[in-house]
Amino acid sequence: MKVSIMSQTRHTKTLIIGSGPAGYTAAVYASRAMLEPILVQGIEPGGQLTTTTEVENWPGDTEVQGPDLMIRMEGHARAMGAEIVSDIILDLDLKNRPFTAKGDSGTIYTADSVILATGARAKWLGLPCEQRFKGFGVSACATCDGFFYRGQELVIVGGGNTAVEEALFLTNFASKVTLVHRRDELRAEKILQDRLFKNPKIETVWFHEVVEILGSENPRGVEAARVKNVKTGELTDIPCKGVFIAIGHAPASELVNSVLETHNGGYVKVEAGTTRTSIPGVFAAGDLTDHVYRQAVTSAGMGCMAALDAEKFLAESG
Questions:
Q1: CATH number of 9-121+250-317
Q2: What is the block-wise mean pLDDT of the chain (318 residues), using blocks of 10 residues?
Q3: pTM for this predicted structure
Q4: Where do the structural domains in the chain lie, given as residue ranges?
Q5: Measuring CA to CA, which residue among 9, 112, 33, 22 is closest to residue 297?
Q6: Residue 107: which residues within 8 A CB-CB, separation 6 or more?
Q7: Which residues are catalytic?
Q8: Do 9-121+250-317 and 124-245 have matching folds?
Q9: The domain made up of 124-245 is a member of CATH 3.30.379.10
Protein backbone atom coordinates (compact mmCIF):
# COMPACT_ATOMS: atom_id res chain seq x y z
CA MET A 1 0.00 0.00 0.00
CA LYS A 2 1.36 3.38 -0.97
CA VAL A 3 1.47 5.89 1.85
CA SER A 4 1.24 9.56 0.95
CA ILE A 5 2.68 12.20 3.24
CA MET A 6 0.49 15.27 3.54
CA SER A 7 2.63 18.39 3.36
CA GLN A 8 1.75 21.20 5.75
CA THR A 9 2.10 24.83 4.69
CA ARG A 10 3.08 27.42 7.29
CA HIS A 11 3.24 31.17 6.70
CA THR A 12 5.27 33.69 8.68
CA LYS A 13 6.25 37.32 8.35
CA THR A 14 9.89 36.35 8.95
CA LEU A 15 11.48 32.96 8.35
CA ILE A 16 14.87 32.51 10.02
CA ILE A 17 17.04 29.72 8.62
CA GLY A 18 19.84 28.68 10.98
CA SER A 19 20.24 28.47 14.73
CA GLY A 20 23.60 29.82 15.81
CA PRO A 21 24.09 33.13 17.63
CA ALA A 22 22.92 35.06 14.55
CA GLY A 23 19.73 33.04 14.10
CA TYR A 24 18.69 33.00 17.76
CA THR A 25 19.42 36.72 18.22
CA ALA A 26 17.43 37.50 15.09
CA ALA A 27 14.58 35.45 16.57
CA VAL A 28 14.68 37.45 19.82
CA TYR A 29 14.53 40.79 18.01
CA ALA A 30 11.99 39.67 15.40
CA SER A 31 9.73 38.41 18.18
CA ARG A 32 9.98 41.70 20.04
CA ALA A 33 9.02 43.46 16.79
CA MET A 34 5.86 41.29 16.64
CA LEU A 35 6.97 39.58 13.43
CA GLU A 36 6.01 36.15 14.86
CA PRO A 37 9.12 34.49 13.38
CA ILE A 38 9.58 30.82 12.64
CA LEU A 39 13.16 29.65 13.09
CA VAL A 40 14.24 26.44 11.35
CA GLN A 41 17.23 25.02 13.21
CA GLY A 42 18.91 23.13 10.39
CA ILE A 43 21.28 20.19 10.38
CA GLU A 44 23.32 21.38 13.38
CA PRO A 45 21.07 23.07 15.97
CA GLY A 46 23.11 25.69 17.79
CA GLY A 47 25.77 25.89 15.10
CA GLN A 48 29.54 25.74 15.56
CA LEU A 49 29.42 26.68 19.25
CA THR A 50 27.87 23.30 20.05
CA THR A 51 31.23 21.73 19.13
CA THR A 52 33.18 24.15 21.32
CA THR A 53 33.87 23.45 24.99
CA GLU A 54 34.85 26.50 27.06
CA VAL A 55 33.91 29.92 25.68
CA GLU A 56 35.70 32.79 27.42
CA ASN A 57 34.96 35.69 25.07
CA TRP A 58 31.18 35.92 25.37
CA PRO A 59 30.42 39.22 27.16
CA GLY A 60 28.96 38.71 30.61
CA ASP A 61 30.28 35.18 31.06
CA THR A 62 33.85 34.73 32.28
CA GLU A 63 33.53 31.16 31.09
CA VAL A 64 30.61 29.25 29.59
CA GLN A 65 30.28 25.94 27.79
CA GLY A 66 29.42 26.42 24.12
CA PRO A 67 26.45 24.00 24.13
CA ASP A 68 25.08 25.58 27.34
CA LEU A 69 25.27 29.05 25.79
CA MET A 70 23.29 27.89 22.77
CA ILE A 71 20.65 26.24 24.96
CA ARG A 72 20.25 29.55 26.78
CA MET A 73 19.95 31.46 23.50
CA GLU A 74 17.32 29.04 22.24
CA GLY A 75 15.40 29.38 25.49
CA HIS A 76 15.55 33.16 25.25
CA ALA A 77 14.19 33.12 21.69
CA ARG A 78 11.35 30.79 22.73
CA ALA A 79 10.52 32.99 25.73
CA MET A 80 10.19 36.00 23.46
CA GLY A 81 7.65 34.09 21.35
CA ALA A 82 9.68 32.71 18.46
CA GLU A 83 8.56 29.35 17.11
CA ILE A 84 11.59 27.07 16.79
CA VAL A 85 11.29 24.09 14.48
CA SER A 86 13.53 21.04 14.21
CA ASP A 87 13.71 20.78 10.43
CA ILE A 88 16.18 21.14 7.59
CA ILE A 89 15.49 23.42 4.61
CA LEU A 90 16.19 21.50 1.41
CA ASP A 91 15.07 24.07 -1.15
CA LEU A 92 14.52 27.82 -1.06
CA ASP A 93 12.70 29.82 -3.74
CA LEU A 94 13.62 33.51 -3.50
CA LYS A 95 12.44 34.47 -6.99
CA ASN A 96 8.81 35.00 -6.03
CA ARG A 97 7.08 36.55 -3.03
CA PRO A 98 6.06 35.26 -0.65
CA PHE A 99 9.33 33.35 -0.50
CA THR A 100 8.98 29.57 -0.26
CA ALA A 101 11.12 27.04 1.61
CA LYS A 102 10.71 23.28 1.57
CA GLY A 103 11.60 21.37 4.72
CA ASP A 104 12.91 17.84 5.02
CA SER A 105 9.83 17.13 7.17
CA GLY A 106 7.57 17.83 4.19
CA THR A 107 6.48 21.19 5.58
CA ILE A 108 6.32 24.13 3.16
CA TYR A 109 7.21 27.48 4.73
CA THR A 110 6.14 30.71 3.08
CA ALA A 111 7.48 34.03 4.30
CA ASP A 112 7.28 37.75 3.63
CA SER A 113 10.95 38.09 4.60
CA VAL A 114 13.83 35.67 5.13
CA ILE A 115 16.84 35.90 7.41
CA LEU A 116 19.66 33.57 6.41
CA ALA A 117 21.87 32.53 9.32
CA THR A 118 23.22 29.18 8.13
CA GLY A 119 26.80 29.95 9.19
CA ALA A 120 30.05 28.56 7.89
CA ARG A 121 32.01 25.41 8.47
CA ALA A 122 35.73 25.16 9.05
CA LYS A 123 37.52 23.08 6.47
CA TRP A 124 39.20 20.05 8.02
CA LEU A 125 41.97 17.72 6.88
CA GLY A 126 39.60 14.74 6.85
CA LEU A 127 41.59 12.59 9.29
CA PRO A 128 39.64 10.26 11.64
CA CYS A 129 41.81 11.38 14.56
CA GLU A 130 40.78 14.98 13.88
CA GLN A 131 37.23 14.24 14.96
CA ARG A 132 38.38 12.20 17.97
CA PHE A 133 40.40 15.10 19.39
CA LYS A 134 38.17 17.98 18.26
CA GLY A 135 37.68 20.10 21.36
CA PHE A 136 40.44 18.15 23.14
CA GLY A 137 43.48 19.65 21.44
CA VAL A 138 42.27 20.00 17.85
CA SER A 139 40.66 23.32 16.91
CA ALA A 140 39.89 25.47 13.89
CA CYS A 141 39.78 28.75 15.81
CA ALA A 142 42.89 30.17 17.44
CA THR A 143 41.09 33.25 18.77
CA CYS A 144 38.55 30.96 20.45
CA ASP A 145 40.90 28.40 21.97
CA GLY A 146 44.46 29.77 22.00
CA PHE A 147 44.13 31.01 25.57
CA PHE A 148 43.96 27.43 26.87
CA TYR A 149 47.52 26.65 25.72
CA ARG A 150 49.64 28.99 27.80
CA GLY A 151 53.25 27.86 27.80
CA GLN A 152 52.54 24.91 25.47
CA GLU A 153 53.94 23.90 22.08
CA LEU A 154 51.42 24.11 19.24
CA VAL A 155 51.13 23.15 15.58
CA ILE A 156 49.17 25.11 13.00
CA VAL A 157 48.35 23.83 9.51
CA GLY A 158 47.92 26.12 6.50
CA GLY A 159 49.62 28.73 4.34
CA GLY A 160 47.17 31.58 3.78
CA ASN A 161 46.37 34.75 5.69
CA THR A 162 44.31 32.90 8.29
CA ALA A 163 47.09 30.44 9.09
CA VAL A 164 49.72 33.17 9.45
CA GLU A 165 47.47 35.47 11.48
CA GLU A 166 46.52 32.64 13.81
CA ALA A 167 50.14 31.50 14.17
CA LEU A 168 51.10 35.03 15.21
CA PHE A 169 48.14 35.21 17.59
CA LEU A 170 49.07 31.91 19.21
CA THR A 171 52.54 33.21 20.10
CA ASN A 172 50.79 35.35 22.74
CA PHE A 173 50.22 32.13 24.67
CA ALA A 174 52.38 29.30 23.33
CA SER A 175 56.05 28.67 24.04
CA LYS A 176 56.50 27.57 20.41
CA VAL A 177 54.34 27.46 17.29
CA THR A 178 55.21 25.18 14.36
CA LEU A 179 53.58 26.11 11.05
CA VAL A 180 53.22 23.10 8.75
CA HIS A 181 52.78 23.80 5.03
CA ARG A 182 52.81 21.40 2.10
CA ARG A 183 54.64 23.85 -0.19
CA ASP A 184 57.73 26.00 0.21
CA GLU A 185 56.02 29.37 0.08
CA LEU A 186 53.00 30.93 1.76
CA ARG A 187 49.94 32.45 0.10
CA ALA A 188 49.61 35.03 2.87
CA GLU A 189 50.21 38.74 2.32
CA LYS A 190 53.89 39.73 2.36
CA ILE A 191 53.55 41.96 5.41
CA LEU A 192 52.13 39.02 7.38
CA GLN A 193 54.89 36.73 6.13
CA ASP A 194 57.52 39.23 7.28
CA ARG A 195 56.02 39.29 10.77
CA LEU A 196 55.88 35.49 10.81
CA PHE A 197 59.50 34.97 9.77
CA LYS A 198 60.75 37.56 12.28
CA ASN A 199 58.90 35.96 15.22
CA PRO A 200 61.35 33.87 17.26
CA LYS A 201 58.58 31.63 18.60
CA ILE A 202 57.51 30.40 15.15
CA GLU A 203 59.19 27.61 13.19
CA THR A 204 58.04 26.83 9.64
CA VAL A 205 58.15 23.27 8.32
CA TRP A 206 58.02 23.27 4.51
CA PHE A 207 56.91 20.48 2.16
CA HIS A 208 55.11 18.61 4.94
CA GLU A 209 51.52 17.64 5.66
CA VAL A 210 49.86 16.36 8.84
CA VAL A 211 48.85 12.73 8.37
CA GLU A 212 47.94 11.80 11.95
CA ILE A 213 47.29 13.41 15.32
CA LEU A 214 48.61 11.43 18.25
CA GLY A 215 47.32 11.62 21.79
CA SER A 216 46.03 9.99 24.93
CA GLU A 217 42.48 8.86 25.68
CA ASN A 218 42.28 9.16 29.47
CA PRO A 219 42.30 12.08 29.84
CA ARG A 220 41.77 12.78 26.14
CA GLY A 221 44.39 15.14 24.74
CA VAL A 222 46.83 15.75 21.92
CA GLU A 223 50.49 14.83 22.37
CA ALA A 224 51.99 15.14 18.88
CA ALA A 225 51.33 15.77 15.20
CA ARG A 226 52.73 13.20 12.76
CA VAL A 227 53.84 14.91 9.57
CA LYS A 228 54.98 13.48 6.24
CA ASN A 229 57.50 15.00 3.87
CA VAL A 230 55.53 15.28 0.60
CA LYS A 231 58.74 14.72 -1.42
CA THR A 232 60.39 11.84 0.42
CA GLY A 233 57.49 10.32 2.38
CA GLU A 234 59.54 10.46 5.58
CA LEU A 235 57.45 10.65 8.78
CA THR A 236 58.26 12.90 11.75
CA ASP A 237 56.42 13.43 15.03
CA ILE A 238 56.21 17.02 16.28
CA PRO A 239 55.45 17.16 20.03
CA CYS A 240 52.57 19.52 20.79
CA LYS A 241 49.51 19.95 22.99
CA GLY A 242 47.30 21.50 20.32
CA VAL A 243 46.81 21.32 16.56
CA PHE A 244 45.06 24.22 14.86
CA ILE A 245 43.66 23.67 11.38
CA ALA A 246 43.68 26.90 9.35
CA ILE A 247 43.00 25.83 5.78
CA GLY A 248 39.93 28.02 5.37
CA HIS A 249 36.20 28.13 6.00
CA ALA A 250 33.33 27.20 3.73
CA PRO A 251 30.15 29.27 4.07
CA ALA A 252 26.97 27.18 4.18
CA SER A 253 25.49 29.03 1.20
CA GLU A 254 24.40 26.03 -0.88
CA LEU A 255 20.73 27.04 -0.68
CA VAL A 256 21.28 30.49 -2.16
CA ASN A 257 24.60 30.71 -4.02
CA SER A 258 22.87 30.45 -7.40
CA VAL A 259 20.40 33.28 -6.70
CA LEU A 260 22.15 35.66 -4.29
CA GLU A 261 25.28 37.65 -4.97
CA THR A 262 28.29 36.08 -3.20
CA HIS A 263 32.00 36.88 -2.88
CA ASN A 264 35.21 35.58 -1.31
CA GLY A 265 34.45 31.97 -2.11
CA GLY A 266 30.70 31.81 -1.51
CA TYR A 267 30.02 34.22 1.37
CA VAL A 268 26.70 36.01 0.85
CA LYS A 269 27.31 39.64 -0.04
CA VAL A 270 25.39 42.27 1.92
CA GLU A 271 25.07 46.01 1.47
CA ALA A 272 27.70 47.77 3.59
CA GLY A 273 26.45 48.60 7.07
CA THR A 274 23.33 46.45 6.69
CA THR A 275 22.31 42.81 6.31
CA ARG A 276 20.47 43.41 3.02
CA THR A 277 21.33 40.96 0.25
CA SER A 278 20.91 41.37 -3.51
CA ILE A 279 17.21 40.37 -3.20
CA PRO A 280 14.89 42.78 -1.34
CA GLY A 281 13.36 41.12 1.70
CA VAL A 282 16.20 38.61 2.08
CA PHE A 283 18.78 39.30 4.78
CA ALA A 284 21.98 37.50 5.78
CA ALA A 285 23.73 37.48 9.15
CA GLY A 286 26.62 35.80 10.94
CA ASP A 287 29.34 33.62 9.49
CA LEU A 288 27.39 33.08 6.27
CA THR A 289 28.30 36.63 5.30
CA ASP A 290 31.30 37.35 7.56
CA HIS A 291 34.63 36.06 6.27
CA VAL A 292 36.64 38.43 8.48
CA TYR A 293 35.67 38.20 12.16
CA ARG A 294 33.77 34.91 12.55
CA GLN A 295 33.00 35.44 16.25
CA ALA A 296 29.87 34.55 18.20
CA VAL A 297 29.44 38.12 19.43
CA THR A 298 29.67 39.66 15.94
CA SER A 299 27.26 37.04 14.61
CA ALA A 300 24.78 37.90 17.34
CA GLY A 301 25.14 41.59 16.48
CA MET A 302 24.35 40.87 12.84
CA GLY A 303 21.36 38.78 13.89
CA CYS A 304 20.01 41.86 15.66
CA MET A 305 20.66 43.98 12.57
CA ALA A 306 18.91 41.46 10.31
CA ALA A 307 15.74 41.44 12.41
CA LEU A 308 15.64 45.24 12.50
CA ASP A 309 16.28 45.39 8.74
CA ALA A 310 13.46 42.89 8.18
CA GLU A 311 11.10 44.88 10.41
CA LYS A 312 11.86 48.07 8.46
CA PHE A 313 11.45 46.28 5.12
CA LEU A 314 8.07 44.84 6.07
CA ALA A 315 6.83 48.19 7.40
CA GLU A 316 7.86 50.01 4.22
CA SER A 317 6.46 47.33 1.89
CA GLY A 318 3.13 47.20 3.67
A1: 3.50.50.60
A2: 61 97 98 97 82 78 90 97 96 96 96 96 89 92 89 96 91 97 93 96 98 95 98 98 92 93 93 97 96 91 98 94
A3: 0.75
A4: 9-121+250-317, 124-245
A5: 22
A6: 7, 8, 9, 10, 85, 87
A7: 141, 144-145
A8: yes
A9: no
